[in-house]
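Quick one - inputs below.
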Amino acid sequence: MSDALTQRIKELEAELERLRSLLKEGRADDTEVMSSSSPQENSDCKPADGDTSTSRKERKKSGKQRPFDFAAHPRRHVALRLAYLGWAYQGFAVQDNTDNTVEARLFEALLKTRLIQDRQSSNYHRCGRTDKGVSAFSQVITIDLRSTQFGGGLGVIVPANVDVDIKSKSSASEVPYVKMLNRVLPQDICILDWAPVAEGFSARFDCQSRTYRYYFPRGSLDVELMADAAKRYEGTHDFRNLCKMDVGNGVLQFERTILSAAVKPVHPQPTSSTDQYDLYMFEIKGLAFLYHQVRCMMAVLLLIGQKLEAPEIINHLVDVANNPRKPQYSMAVDYPLVLHDCHFGDLSWQRDAEEVKHVLSSLQQHWTQSAIRAQVLQGMVQDLEKKGGVSSSHCCLVEGTKQRNYRPLLERPCCESLESRINHFVKRGRLEREEGENGGEVIHRGKKSKHCHISSSLPEAPGTPKQCTDHKVND
Amino acid sequence: MSDALTQRIKELEAELERLRSLLKEGRADDTEVMSSSSPQENSDCKPADGDTSTSRKERKKSGKQRPFDFAAHPRRHVALRLAYLGWAYQGFAVQDNTDNTVEARLFEALLKTRLIQDRQSSNYHRCGRTDKGVSAFSQVITIDLRSTQFGGGLGVIVPANVDVDIKSKSSASEVPYVKMLNRVLPQDICILDWAPVAEGFSARFDCQSRTYRYYFPRGSLDVELMADAAKRYEGTHDFRNLCKMDVGNGVLQFERTILSAAVKPVHPQPTSSTDQYDLYMFEIKGLAFLYHQVRCMMAVLLLIGQKLEAPEIINHLVDVANNPRKPQYSMAVDYPLVLHDCHFGDLSWQRDAEEVKHVLSSLQQHWTQSAIRAQVLQGMVQDLEKKGGVSSSHCCLVEGTKQRNYRPLLERPCCESLESRINHFVKRGRLEREEGENGGEVIHRGKKSKHCHISSSLPEAPGTPKQCTDHKVND
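Output:
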């Protein structure tokens, strides 16, 4: 046993030696760095005595234990912009009960390319979480990645003990983050570009606004009514009746600001078309969103489009003084939802034309398959209709089965009120009430809380919500 | 053991008795007939002595051995029209090495609903075979199904020993074939309608013509050139260079008649659009097709659309005197191909409006999912292009990877000639040559042939091809 250990130490030392000499020679070539797991491929490198093929296999198997001296490299705080198709995943964020998340694949790629040492030390923030089935065209994360910039730069932290020689010979170009990651990520997740950012910059807290899109076919919906209704979402409102309350996670305040909300055709319509196959989108831009907020808002719009509710229902739903409890209704399904954009201040997005072409090509192939399959189906549907088939007016974008007799929202049973939910968690010790200075009540983390460490007062106080850092802000 | 057998006999007898009394009372209600497997649910029926729940389970498990007296029922020769999405299946026809075929699902449904006793005795013919991944909107089969028409009718065979009373009380309406089958078929296979047909009518031999559609996006293709090219397929030609020759199965003659061939937009274009996302179709109608013929024809059209070949190449390819051997090229991929229609003479298709609505609703839901997914992708592609991404001109509808340097078809290596293939099978005894009456050669089934039992002369003789009944006529 001690023989094997001694052997291992020798291997590690030899590898360190090799890398240090590479750096000294100014050859911070990433190809060589990445292939350090197979020293014999590099003619400059002679394996340590007794370095058999077995020990090389051992090194390969041990994965993260492969010798790589992160401390000898600069690190740099960057923003990465991702696009992914959420249909095959259980959501963006890593979860306890499944490995099938976008983040899990992302971190596998970051570790495999040795751009980070481990997640915990990577200073990782994400702009938002998308739920199972939800896609993103602009999900932004910030993270510290390995860098070649010994000479420093925006967000670069150069290791303290670096040779003056190396500094002066530092490579002009940064590690090709986008290309490296896209080579190892699965087909349906890709990095679009990256941006250097200042050390304190956070994808989560520095995000200025987020835009979602929800796509749907016209079918037999009254899209003009829906467009009228959508506008009513704009402004600052209490959206507790248009989300899934997440009180247990410390979400206690439901005012959010919607900068714009519109229903419009995907392609500008040349004539006033009434084709049921025309595609529309609900596009909504806001500062921050509550859990399932967009899907709840969409569900109400679909009811309005089917003329089962009037556009005014939205005004009622945001009037929490008169409607403090959410009527029971199902939210819209997940697959048509896309986190389309996360807006930041002036970020200098570094785009590699070759990479974009590569991503574009991949997406186009995906699109071709989907569009053709949709057309095969559309051809069948249209021919059946010609033969006298009557189109169903059922909207299949809402979860659950269609009720025979429609029950207006305001006449339905309601969900628990916010106060009731708070009481529930206070009883369990997850939240605690205290008297605040001005006589109002303050709710904060209880002794038995899982995550919370920020308090929030209730029920007024518009303005920037103070939230637990772990709550799910997005859909 | 003999106790169990005796028990079984008692159960069978009791069941026969029950059904006979039902018939006598004129209650040929299919619901009751179908629920005869659970006699206790029918209050008229008392299980035989000792009929325990175990024996009922045994009866259920034994599947086809459930007692049902087919001989006591009329049978009727019918045509069934099917639609199916071929993407999840290994083709239409039953295969030795897989259960995952459309036909396998169809026969499971026919047996489960007890519309047939078994495949072998069902007098089954199919209009054509579609390959793995290929869909159909109008696949027609003919088959003998159980009937209620004791009074006779088109294609009805009434059992000889039927009671005069029953005949006079025979039910007015036929077994609801379409509804019954659709309830047990999987989501992506459905019966559209049925038609009574004369006893000798065959889906295969009485089919007058077949129409295929191949859908594709415009991309960067020159669709006008393709439209010009497609017309050149019309007429009667030797298509050996535009199919996969199936000599081993007795396909020895490659002349086929194409009634019409066109490339056109799926939706009539209001203005002269050049949108790369516009969908087009190659629609082709012919008497009969060779194996993979449409996909080979499409592959050549795609080369023409990419301006890699001129439309005249088609004239060269059907000129087998000057081009007796097929150049090597890959056929187009499978998923965009649909057997759109099988044309018969005057058939009286029986359509159930409720059923059509049901099928339509199901297809619309499918379409909604596909179309929205396509739109999510299209939204991403369009935004990337706006940001300067360059669209790939690679056509992903052809199998295999794109070659860097295009090699014109007529300069490529060729496949084996027809004569060479015949020699190959003659050597193996699967085909035999003989001298025909007029001095020409006659090729027919050899001693070691698997299927063939019809001969064909070579190489001339245009007109109706004599083919082995088992050859794959369609794509």
